[in-house]
Amino acid sequence: MISLKGASKQYTKHSVGIENVNLHVDAGEFVSVVGQSGTGKTTLVKLLIAEEKPTSGVVEIGGWDISRISQQDIPLLRRQIGVIFQDFKLLEKKTVEENVAFALQVAGESPRRIRDVVPRVLDIVGLGHKVERYPNQLSGGEQQRVAIARALVHRPKILVADEPTGNLDAINTHEIMEILKKINDFGTTIMLVTHNREIVNQLRKRVITLHGGKIVVDEEQGKYQL
Amino acid sequence: MSLSFMTVLILVLMLLSVNTLIIVQALTEEAVQNVKEQIDVSVYFQNDVTEEEILEVRSYVDSFPEVTEVTYIETDEVLAQFRETHKENPDILASLDELGENPLGPTMIIKTREPGEYENIITALGVPEYEHIIEAKTFADTEKAIDKIGIITKQVEQAVLVLSILFTVIAFFVIFNTIRVAIYTQRIEIGIKKLVGATNWFVRGPYIVESILFSLFSMVFAGVIIWFAIQFLDPYIAVILDSQQFLTNYFRSNILVLVGSQFFAVLALTIITSGLAMRRYLRV
InterPro entries recorded for this chain (chain A) (predicted)? Predict the structure, then answer.
Protein backbone atom coordinates (compact mmCIF):
# COMPACT_ATOMS: atom_id res chain seq x y z
CA MET A 1 0.00 0.00 0.00
CA ILE A 2 2.80 2.41 1.01
CA SER A 3 6.39 1.58 0.21
CA LEU A 4 9.63 3.56 0.50
CA LYS A 5 12.84 1.97 -0.77
CA GLY A 6 16.06 3.87 -0.01
CA ALA A 7 14.07 7.09 -0.27
CA SER A 8 15.92 10.36 0.38
CA LYS A 9 14.92 13.97 0.07
CA GLN A 10 17.60 16.62 0.18
CA TYR A 11 16.47 20.27 -0.10
CA THR A 12 19.91 21.91 -0.08
CA LYS A 13 23.45 20.69 0.57
CA HIS A 14 22.99 21.00 4.34
CA SER A 15 19.23 20.49 4.57
CA VAL A 16 18.07 16.88 4.53
CA GLY A 17 14.37 15.97 4.81
CA ILE A 18 14.66 12.17 4.97
CA GLU A 19 17.65 9.97 4.28
CA ASN A 20 17.68 6.40 2.95
CA VAL A 21 14.27 5.49 4.40
CA ASN A 22 12.95 1.95 3.89
CA LEU A 23 9.37 1.42 4.94
CA HIS A 24 6.44 -0.80 4.05
CA VAL A 25 2.86 -0.29 5.20
CA ASP A 26 0.24 -2.94 4.43
CA ALA A 27 -3.41 -2.34 3.58
CA GLY A 28 -5.58 -1.72 6.64
CA GLU A 29 -2.68 -0.81 8.95
CA PHE A 30 -2.74 2.10 11.41
CA VAL A 31 0.78 3.52 11.58
CA SER A 32 1.93 6.41 13.75
CA VAL A 33 5.02 8.32 12.68
CA VAL A 34 6.63 10.20 15.55
CA GLY A 35 9.70 12.31 16.02
CA GLN A 36 10.88 15.72 17.11
CA SER A 37 10.49 18.80 14.96
CA GLY A 38 12.71 18.76 11.90
CA THR A 39 13.17 15.01 11.81
CA GLY A 40 11.49 14.56 8.44
CA LYS A 41 7.85 13.83 9.36
CA THR A 42 6.43 16.64 7.19
CA THR A 43 8.80 15.70 4.34
CA LEU A 44 7.41 12.19 4.49
CA VAL A 45 3.83 13.52 4.18
CA LYS A 46 4.83 15.84 1.32
CA LEU A 47 6.38 12.90 -0.53
CA LEU A 48 3.26 10.78 -0.05
CA ILE A 49 0.98 13.45 -1.59
CA ALA A 50 3.50 14.33 -4.33
CA GLU A 51 4.04 17.84 -3.04
CA GLU A 52 7.73 16.92 -3.22
CA LYS A 53 9.60 14.30 -5.21
CA PRO A 54 12.36 12.13 -3.72
CA THR A 55 15.93 13.09 -4.57
CA SER A 56 16.75 9.39 -4.75
CA GLY A 57 15.07 6.07 -4.04
CA VAL A 58 11.49 5.02 -4.63
CA VAL A 59 8.28 6.20 -2.98
CA GLU A 60 5.14 4.26 -3.86
CA ILE A 61 1.64 4.84 -2.57
CA GLY A 62 -1.55 3.11 -3.72
CA GLY A 63 0.17 1.93 -6.90
CA TRP A 64 1.61 5.36 -7.79
CA ASP A 65 5.37 5.84 -8.10
CA ILE A 66 5.93 9.36 -6.75
CA SER A 67 9.44 9.64 -8.19
CA ARG A 68 8.02 9.19 -11.70
CA ILE A 69 4.54 10.68 -11.40
CA SER A 70 3.67 13.29 -14.05
CA GLN A 71 2.17 16.70 -13.27
CA GLN A 72 -1.09 15.60 -14.94
CA ASP A 73 -1.38 12.53 -12.68
CA ILE A 74 -0.82 14.35 -9.37
CA PRO A 75 -4.48 15.53 -9.10
CA LEU A 76 -5.62 11.93 -9.76
CA LEU A 77 -3.35 10.65 -6.97
CA ARG A 78 -4.66 13.26 -4.53
CA ARG A 79 -8.25 12.25 -5.25
CA GLN A 80 -7.39 8.70 -4.17
CA ILE A 81 -5.54 9.54 -0.98
CA GLY A 82 -7.27 11.34 1.86
CA VAL A 83 -5.14 13.96 3.60
CA ILE A 84 -5.81 16.00 6.72
CA PHE A 85 -3.56 18.72 8.13
CA GLN A 86 -2.89 20.42 11.44
CA ASP A 87 -4.23 23.76 10.08
CA PHE A 88 -7.30 22.03 8.51
CA LYS A 89 -6.78 23.76 5.13
CA LEU A 90 -10.45 24.60 4.61
CA LEU A 91 -11.67 27.14 2.07
CA GLU A 92 -12.76 30.09 4.23
CA LYS A 93 -15.29 31.44 1.73
CA LYS A 94 -17.10 28.13 1.38
CA THR A 95 -19.56 26.56 3.81
CA VAL A 96 -19.02 23.18 5.45
CA GLU A 97 -21.12 21.54 2.74
CA GLU A 98 -19.35 23.40 -0.08
CA ASN A 99 -15.90 22.52 1.30
CA VAL A 100 -16.72 18.82 1.23
CA ALA A 101 -18.50 19.08 -2.14
CA PHE A 102 -15.48 20.85 -3.64
CA ALA A 103 -13.36 17.69 -3.37
CA LEU A 104 -15.96 15.92 -5.53
CA GLN A 105 -16.38 18.83 -7.95
CA VAL A 106 -12.66 18.85 -8.81
CA ALA A 107 -12.99 15.17 -9.70
CA GLY A 108 -15.84 15.99 -12.09
CA GLU A 109 -18.52 14.15 -10.08
CA SER A 110 -22.14 14.80 -11.06
CA PRO A 111 -24.22 17.25 -8.95
CA ARG A 112 -26.58 14.39 -8.19
CA ARG A 113 -23.82 12.24 -6.72
CA ILE A 114 -22.47 15.24 -4.79
CA ARG A 115 -25.92 15.89 -3.28
CA ASP A 116 -26.10 12.22 -2.34
CA VAL A 117 -22.61 11.71 -0.87
CA VAL A 118 -21.88 14.96 0.99
CA PRO A 119 -24.69 14.79 3.62
CA ARG A 120 -23.85 11.15 4.36
CA VAL A 121 -20.17 11.87 4.95
CA LEU A 122 -20.99 14.88 7.11
CA ASP A 123 -23.32 12.70 9.20
CA ILE A 124 -20.46 10.21 9.75
CA VAL A 125 -18.28 12.97 11.29
CA GLY A 126 -21.27 14.35 13.23
CA LEU A 127 -21.67 17.65 11.38
CA GLY A 128 -24.91 16.98 9.52
CA HIS A 129 -26.57 19.83 11.41
CA LYS A 130 -23.90 22.45 10.59
CA VAL A 131 -23.73 22.22 6.80
CA GLU A 132 -24.42 25.93 6.23
CA ARG A 133 -21.73 27.16 8.64
CA TYR A 134 -18.48 28.71 7.49
CA PRO A 135 -15.13 27.43 8.87
CA ASN A 136 -14.67 30.50 11.08
CA GLN A 137 -18.03 29.71 12.74
CA LEU A 138 -16.78 26.29 13.89
CA SER A 139 -14.50 25.11 16.71
CA GLY A 140 -11.09 23.63 15.91
CA GLY A 141 -12.39 20.10 16.43
CA GLU A 142 -15.34 20.73 14.14
CA GLN A 143 -13.07 22.19 11.46
CA GLN A 144 -10.89 19.09 11.60
CA ARG A 145 -13.99 16.93 11.26
CA VAL A 146 -14.93 18.87 8.11
CA ALA A 147 -11.42 18.18 6.79
CA ILE A 148 -11.85 14.47 7.57
CA ALA A 149 -15.23 14.46 5.80
CA ARG A 150 -13.60 16.09 2.78
CA ALA A 151 -10.84 13.47 2.82
CA LEU A 152 -13.40 10.66 2.99
CA VAL A 153 -15.70 11.63 0.13
CA HIS A 154 -13.61 9.73 -2.38
CA ARG A 155 -13.62 6.63 -0.15
CA PRO A 156 -9.80 6.60 -0.06
CA LYS A 157 -7.90 3.43 0.69
CA ILE A 158 -5.22 5.50 2.42
CA LEU A 159 -5.62 8.43 4.80
CA VAL A 160 -2.57 10.53 5.68
CA ALA A 161 -3.04 12.64 8.80
CA ASP A 162 -0.35 15.29 9.38
CA GLU A 163 -0.55 16.41 13.04
CA PRO A 164 -4.37 16.37 12.95
CA THR A 165 -4.67 17.10 16.67
CA GLY A 166 -1.87 19.66 16.87
CA ASN A 167 -4.27 22.59 17.26
CA LEU A 168 -6.90 20.82 19.38
CA ASP A 169 -7.66 20.49 23.09
CA ALA A 170 -7.82 17.13 24.86
CA ILE A 171 -11.54 16.55 24.28
CA ASN A 172 -11.41 17.37 20.57
CA THR A 173 -8.21 15.32 20.21
CA HIS A 174 -10.02 12.32 21.68
CA GLU A 175 -12.99 12.82 19.31
CA ILE A 176 -10.77 13.06 16.24
CA MET A 177 -8.82 9.96 17.24
CA GLU A 178 -12.06 8.03 17.69
CA ILE A 179 -13.13 9.01 14.18
CA LEU A 180 -9.76 7.95 12.74
CA LYS A 181 -9.97 4.59 14.52
CA LYS A 182 -13.48 4.09 13.14
CA ILE A 183 -12.23 4.86 9.60
CA ASN A 184 -9.41 2.35 10.11
CA ASP A 185 -11.90 -0.25 11.30
CA PHE A 186 -13.68 0.08 7.94
CA GLY A 187 -10.41 -0.98 6.24
CA THR A 188 -8.73 2.32 5.37
CA THR A 189 -4.95 2.41 5.88
CA ILE A 190 -4.01 5.30 8.14
CA MET A 191 -0.65 7.00 8.48
CA LEU A 192 -0.73 9.37 11.45
CA VAL A 193 2.10 11.85 11.83
CA THR A 194 2.14 13.25 15.34
CA HIS A 195 4.20 14.28 18.33
CA ASN A 196 1.37 13.66 20.81
CA ARG A 197 2.79 11.05 23.19
CA GLU A 198 -0.56 10.30 24.86
CA ILE A 199 -2.52 9.38 21.74
CA VAL A 200 0.29 7.22 20.35
CA ASN A 201 0.58 5.28 23.59
CA GLN A 202 -3.20 4.81 23.82
CA LEU A 203 -3.48 3.52 20.27
CA ARG A 204 -1.23 0.47 20.82
CA LYS A 205 -0.58 0.26 17.09
CA ARG A 206 2.57 0.29 14.94
CA VAL A 207 4.90 3.22 15.69
CA ILE A 208 7.72 4.47 13.47
CA THR A 209 10.18 6.88 15.06
CA LEU A 210 12.18 9.26 12.89
CA HIS A 211 15.39 10.95 13.95
CA GLY A 212 17.62 13.04 11.72
CA GLY A 213 15.61 11.99 8.68
CA LYS A 214 16.13 8.25 9.36
CA ILE A 215 13.91 5.55 10.84
CA VAL A 216 15.40 4.66 14.22
CA VAL A 217 12.55 2.56 15.62
CA ASP A 218 9.78 0.60 13.87
CA GLU A 219 7.66 -1.42 16.35
CA GLU A 220 4.33 -3.24 16.14
CA GLN A 221 2.18 -2.06 19.08
CA GLY A 222 4.92 0.42 19.90
CA LYS A 223 5.10 3.40 22.17
CA TYR A 224 6.19 6.98 21.86
CA GLN A 225 9.86 6.98 22.76
CA LEU A 226 12.33 9.75 22.04
CA MET B 1 -11.28 39.17 -6.63
CA SER B 2 -10.67 41.73 -3.94
CA LEU B 3 -8.86 44.11 -6.28
CA SER B 4 -11.34 43.72 -9.10
CA PHE B 5 -12.30 47.41 -9.00
CA MET B 6 -8.65 48.46 -9.30
CA THR B 7 -8.08 46.03 -12.16
CA VAL B 8 -11.08 47.33 -14.12
CA LEU B 9 -10.04 50.94 -13.38
CA ILE B 10 -6.51 50.36 -14.71
CA LEU B 11 -7.89 48.64 -17.80
CA VAL B 12 -10.31 51.54 -18.41
CA LEU B 13 -7.45 54.05 -18.08
CA MET B 14 -5.32 52.03 -20.48
CA LEU B 15 -8.17 51.83 -23.00
CA LEU B 16 -8.77 55.59 -22.69
CA SER B 17 -5.07 56.26 -23.35
CA VAL B 18 -5.00 53.99 -26.37
CA ASN B 19 -8.18 55.53 -27.78
CA THR B 20 -6.83 59.04 -27.20
CA LEU B 21 -3.87 58.06 -29.34
CA ILE B 22 -6.22 56.64 -31.98
CA ILE B 23 -8.19 59.91 -32.00
CA VAL B 24 -5.00 62.00 -32.26
CA GLN B 25 -3.79 59.89 -35.15
CA ALA B 26 -7.15 60.05 -36.96
CA LEU B 27 -7.28 63.83 -36.53
CA THR B 28 -3.70 64.25 -37.73
CA GLU B 29 -4.35 62.11 -40.79
CA GLU B 30 -7.50 64.05 -41.61
CA ALA B 31 -5.81 67.42 -41.11
CA VAL B 32 -2.86 66.44 -43.27
CA GLN B 33 -5.22 65.11 -45.93
CA ASN B 34 -7.12 68.41 -45.86
CA VAL B 35 -3.94 70.42 -46.30
CA LYS B 36 -2.71 68.08 -49.02
CA GLU B 37 -5.95 68.57 -50.92
CA GLN B 38 -5.44 72.33 -50.81
CA ILE B 39 -1.99 72.03 -52.34
CA ASP B 40 -1.71 71.92 -56.10
CA VAL B 41 0.45 73.13 -58.93
CA SER B 42 -0.93 75.98 -61.00
CA VAL B 43 0.49 76.27 -64.49
CA TYR B 44 -0.08 79.70 -66.04
CA PHE B 45 0.05 79.71 -69.82
CA GLN B 46 1.08 82.59 -72.05
CA ASN B 47 -1.75 84.70 -73.34
CA ASP B 48 -1.21 83.63 -76.95
CA VAL B 49 -1.16 79.90 -76.34
CA THR B 50 -3.29 77.82 -78.70
CA GLU B 51 -5.96 75.29 -77.76
CA GLU B 52 -3.90 72.50 -79.34
CA GLU B 53 -0.83 73.36 -77.30
CA ILE B 54 -2.87 73.30 -74.07
CA LEU B 55 -4.41 69.94 -74.98
CA GLU B 56 -0.96 68.56 -75.69
CA VAL B 57 0.33 69.69 -72.29
CA ARG B 58 -2.79 68.27 -70.65
CA SER B 59 -2.41 64.84 -72.21
CA TYR B 60 1.32 64.92 -71.35
CA VAL B 61 0.51 65.68 -67.67
CA ASP B 62 -2.30 63.10 -67.62
CA SER B 63 0.15 60.42 -68.67
CA PHE B 64 1.90 60.57 -65.28
CA PRO B 65 0.50 57.91 -62.90
CA GLU B 66 0.96 60.15 -59.83
CA VAL B 67 -1.42 62.79 -61.25
CA THR B 68 -4.92 62.42 -59.82
CA GLU B 69 -6.69 65.48 -61.23
CA VAL B 70 -6.11 68.09 -63.92
CA THR B 71 -8.41 71.11 -64.11
CA TYR B 72 -8.29 73.52 -67.02
CA ILE B 73 -9.54 77.07 -66.55
CA GLU B 74 -10.17 79.16 -69.63
CA THR B 75 -9.03 82.80 -69.87
CA ASP B 76 -12.51 84.28 -69.27
CA GLU B 77 -12.95 82.26 -66.14
CA VAL B 78 -9.44 83.17 -64.95
CA LEU B 79 -10.33 86.81 -65.38
CA ALA B 80 -13.62 86.36 -63.54
CA GLN B 81 -11.83 84.63 -60.66
CA PHE B 82 -9.19 87.40 -60.60
CA ARG B 83 -11.92 90.04 -60.41
CA GLU B 84 -13.68 88.13 -57.63
CA THR B 85 -10.44 87.77 -55.64
CA HIS B 86 -9.65 91.51 -55.95
CA LYS B 87 -13.19 92.92 -55.76
CA GLU B 88 -12.29 94.99 -52.73
CA ASN B 89 -9.28 96.57 -54.42
CA PRO B 90 -10.60 99.20 -56.88
CA ASP B 91 -7.10 100.17 -58.06
CA ILE B 92 -6.37 96.72 -59.46
CA LEU B 93 -9.82 96.51 -61.07
CA ALA B 94 -9.36 100.00 -62.58
CA SER B 95 -5.95 99.00 -64.02
CA LEU B 96 -7.56 95.92 -65.55
CA ASP B 97 -10.31 98.06 -67.14
CA GLU B 98 -7.65 100.44 -68.41
CA LEU B 99 -5.98 97.63 -70.36
CA GLY B 100 -9.20 97.01 -72.25
CA GLU B 101 -8.35 93.38 -72.98
CA ASN B 102 -7.84 90.24 -70.89
CA PRO B 103 -4.13 90.11 -69.98
CA LEU B 104 -4.40 86.73 -68.25
CA GLY B 105 -3.69 83.46 -69.99
CA PRO B 106 -5.44 80.13 -69.29
CA THR B 107 -4.46 78.16 -66.20
CA MET B 108 -4.09 74.46 -65.51
CA ILE B 109 -4.38 73.13 -61.94
CA ILE B 110 -2.70 69.77 -61.29
CA LYS B 111 -3.14 67.56 -58.25
CA THR B 112 -1.06 64.50 -57.34
CA ARG B 113 -1.50 61.66 -54.83
CA GLU B 114 1.31 62.86 -52.54
CA PRO B 115 2.81 66.33 -52.10
CA GLY B 116 6.30 64.97 -52.78
CA GLU B 117 5.28 64.05 -56.29
CA TYR B 118 4.77 67.68 -57.40
CA GLU B 119 8.44 68.06 -57.93
CA ASN B 120 8.40 65.35 -60.63
CA ILE B 121 5.60 67.16 -62.47
CA ILE B 122 7.35 70.51 -62.28
CA THR B 123 10.58 68.96 -63.57
CA ALA B 124 8.65 67.26 -66.36
CA LEU B 125 7.06 70.57 -67.39
CA GLY B 126 10.43 72.28 -67.45
CA VAL B 127 11.32 70.75 -70.81
CA PRO B 128 12.42 73.26 -73.53
CA GLU B 129 9.44 72.60 -75.86
CA TYR B 130 7.02 74.02 -73.25
CA GLU B 131 9.22 76.95 -72.21
CA HIS B 132 7.55 79.36 -74.67
CA ILE B 133 3.97 78.51 -73.72
CA ILE B 134 4.20 78.28 -69.90
CA GLU B 135 4.52 81.64 -68.20
CA ALA B 136 4.80 80.49 -64.56
CA LYS B 137 4.39 77.60 -62.17
CA THR B 138 3.37 78.22 -58.53
CA PHE B 139 4.82 75.09 -57.01
CA ALA B 140 7.84 76.86 -55.56
CA ASP B 141 5.56 78.82 -53.22
CA THR B 142 4.06 75.68 -51.65
CA GLU B 143 7.18 73.54 -51.64
CA LYS B 144 8.18 74.59 -48.12
CA ALA B 145 4.63 73.97 -46.82
CA ILE B 146 4.69 70.50 -48.35
CA ASP B 147 8.06 69.73 -46.78
CA LYS B 148 6.83 70.98 -43.42
CA ILE B 149 3.72 68.81 -43.59
CA GLY B 150 5.89 65.83 -44.42
CA ILE B 151 8.08 66.47 -41.39
CA ILE B 152 5.15 67.15 -39.05
CA THR B 153 3.32 64.00 -40.20
CA LYS B 154 6.40 61.89 -39.66
CA GLN B 155 7.03 63.39 -36.23
CA VAL B 156 3.41 62.94 -35.10
CA GLU B 157 3.43 59.34 -36.31
CA GLN B 158 6.68 58.65 -34.45
CA ALA B 159 5.39 60.30 -31.28
CA VAL B 160 2.15 58.31 -31.45
CA LEU B 161 4.11 55.09 -31.94
CA VAL B 162 6.44 55.80 -29.02
CA LEU B 163 3.50 56.77 -26.77
CA SER B 164 1.56 53.65 -27.79
CA ILE B 165 4.49 51.39 -26.91
CA LEU B 166 5.04 53.26 -23.65
CA PHE B 167 1.36 52.97 -22.65
CA THR B 168 1.29 49.27 -23.49
CA VAL B 169 4.40 48.56 -21.42
CA ILE B 170 3.10 50.62 -18.47
CA ALA B 171 -0.33 48.96 -18.72
CA PHE B 172 1.27 45.52 -18.78
CA PHE B 173 3.27 46.13 -15.61
CA VAL B 174 0.45 47.90 -13.76
CA ILE B 175 -2.07 45.17 -14.61
CA PHE B 176 0.48 42.43 -13.92
CA ASN B 177 1.11 43.85 -10.45
CA THR B 178 -2.57 44.49 -9.74
CA ILE B 179 -3.48 40.91 -10.64
CA ARG B 180 -0.39 39.56 -8.86
CA VAL B 181 -1.44 41.24 -5.61
CA ALA B 182 -4.99 39.93 -6.06
CA ILE B 183 -3.72 36.38 -6.63
CA TYR B 184 -1.23 36.67 -3.75
CA THR B 185 -4.17 37.22 -1.40
CA GLN B 186 -5.67 33.96 -2.70
CA ARG B 187 -2.49 31.86 -2.70
CA ILE B 188 -3.63 29.77 0.29
CA GLU B 189 -6.95 29.01 -1.38
CA ILE B 190 -5.16 28.03 -4.60
CA GLY B 191 -2.85 25.72 -2.61
CA ILE B 192 -5.81 24.05 -0.83
CA LYS B 193 -7.60 23.47 -4.13
CA LYS B 194 -4.50 21.80 -5.51
CA LEU B 195 -4.10 19.61 -2.40
CA VAL B 196 -7.62 18.22 -2.69
CA GLY B 197 -6.98 17.16 -6.28
CA ALA B 198 -7.86 20.15 -8.48
CA THR B 199 -6.05 20.31 -11.81
CA ASN B 200 -4.27 23.51 -12.84
CA TRP B 201 -7.02 24.25 -15.36
CA PHE B 202 -9.71 23.76 -12.70
CA VAL B 203 -7.95 26.37 -10.54
CA ARG B 204 -7.35 28.71 -13.50
CA GLY B 205 -10.96 28.47 -14.73
CA PRO B 206 -12.50 31.10 -12.44
CA TYR B 207 -9.62 33.51 -13.18
CA ILE B 208 -10.15 33.14 -16.91
CA VAL B 209 -13.87 33.85 -16.44
CA GLU B 210 -12.89 36.88 -14.32
CA SER B 211 -10.50 38.04 -17.04
CA ILE B 212 -13.31 37.88 -19.61
CA LEU B 213 -15.61 39.82 -17.26
CA PHE B 214 -12.91 42.43 -16.51
CA SER B 215 -12.31 42.86 -20.24
CA LEU B 216 -16.04 43.24 -20.93
CA PHE B 217 -16.63 45.69 -18.06
CA SER B 218 -13.61 47.81 -18.93
CA MET B 219 -14.61 47.89 -22.61
CA VAL B 220 -18.13 49.01 -21.70
CA PHE B 221 -16.94 51.70 -19.24
CA ALA B 222 -14.25 52.99 -21.60
CA GLY B 223 -16.74 52.87 -24.51
CA VAL B 224 -19.27 55.02 -22.65
CA ILE B 225 -16.62 57.60 -21.68
CA ILE B 226 -15.23 57.71 -25.24
CA TRP B 227 -18.75 58.12 -26.70
CA PHE B 228 -19.41 61.14 -24.47
CA ALA B 229 -15.97 62.55 -25.27
CA ILE B 230 -16.44 62.36 -29.04
CA GLN B 231 -19.91 63.89 -28.78
CA PHE B 232 -18.28 66.77 -26.93
CA LEU B 233 -15.34 67.09 -29.34
CA ASP B 234 -17.12 66.69 -32.69
CA PRO B 235 -18.61 70.25 -32.87
CA TYR B 236 -15.16 71.76 -32.24
CA ILE B 237 -13.53 69.46 -34.79
CA ALA B 238 -16.21 70.40 -37.35
CA VAL B 239 -15.01 74.02 -37.16
CA ILE B 240 -11.35 73.11 -37.74
CA LEU B 241 -11.63 70.28 -40.25
CA ASP B 242 -14.82 71.27 -42.04
CA SER B 243 -16.12 67.77 -41.48
CA GLN B 244 -19.38 67.13 -39.60
CA GLN B 245 -19.30 64.46 -36.87
CA PHE B 246 -15.82 63.40 -37.92
CA LEU B 247 -14.99 61.30 -34.82
CA THR B 248 -18.47 59.74 -34.59
CA ASN B 249 -18.24 58.64 -38.22
CA TYR B 250 -14.65 57.48 -37.76
CA PHE B 251 -15.54 55.26 -34.78
CA ARG B 252 -18.75 54.01 -36.46
CA SER B 253 -16.98 52.96 -39.63
CA ASN B 254 -14.14 51.26 -37.71
CA ILE B 255 -16.21 49.91 -34.80
CA LEU B 256 -15.60 46.20 -35.44
CA VAL B 257 -11.84 46.52 -35.82
CA LEU B 258 -11.49 48.91 -32.87
CA VAL B 259 -13.72 46.98 -30.43
CA GLY B 260 -12.53 43.55 -31.58
CA SER B 261 -8.81 44.29 -31.47
CA GLN B 262 -8.98 46.14 -28.15
CA PHE B 263 -11.17 43.48 -26.50
CA PHE B 264 -8.85 40.66 -27.51
CA ALA B 265 -5.77 42.69 -26.55
CA VAL B 266 -7.20 43.39 -23.07
CA LEU B 267 -8.35 39.77 -22.71
CA ALA B 268 -4.93 38.43 -23.71
CA LEU B 269 -3.26 40.89 -21.35
CA THR B 270 -5.39 39.85 -18.35
CA ILE B 271 -5.19 36.11 -19.07
CA ILE B 272 -1.42 36.19 -19.63
CA THR B 273 -0.73 38.35 -16.57
CA SER B 274 -2.98 36.27 -14.29
CA GLY B 275 -1.40 33.08 -15.68
CA LEU B 276 2.10 34.40 -14.97
CA ALA B 277 1.12 35.67 -11.52
CA MET B 278 -0.51 32.35 -10.59
CA ARG B 279 2.20 30.06 -11.91
CA ARG B 280 4.24 29.83 -8.72
CA TYR B 281 1.20 29.06 -6.55
CA LEU B 282 0.15 26.20 -8.84
CA ARG B 283 3.39 24.33 -8.11
CA VAL B 284 1.90 22.66 -5.01
Answer: AAA+_ATPase, ABC_transporter-like_ATP-bd, ABC_transporter-like_CS, ABC_transpr_LolD-like, Cell_div_FtsE, P-loop_NTPase
